[in-house]
Structures are given as structure tokens and as C-alpha cells.
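Entry 14. Structure prediction run on the chain below.
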Amino acid sequence: MRSTVIQAILFDLDGTLVDSERLWCLAMQQVVTVRGLPVTESYIGELVCGKAWSDIVDQLRTDYPSIR
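Output returned:
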């Protein structure tokens, strides 16, 4: 029987291979603006960057109660 040896492990934090955080910021901005609510780019950046999705959703619900 032949054994397999792991020679490498690839661990990607957002921004290492693909910077999707910028796209999430744009998506969250659309979620808010499509509902006619005021929002700034700096708010969205602070809301999304480095945050867990559960925290993002909680903050959106706090700041914009009409979003459900």
C-alpha cells in the first residue's frame, strides 16, 4: 500500500489570492441604496471590512430597521 504525503497546504485569507472584500462592499451598498436609504462609502467600508457576516447583518438591522 502506498502512502500519500502532503507536500503543501494553501490557506487563503481574503485579499491573498482574490480581493473579494471590495465586491462585498459594493453589494452591501446596493442592498441599502436600492431601498432608497442613505449610505456612505466609508460606512460600508467600516461595516464590511474585517467583519463576520453575522456582525454585518446585526449592524445593518440596527442601523436600518426597515431592512429585513
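The mean pLDDT is 86.
Filed with the rest of this week's runs.
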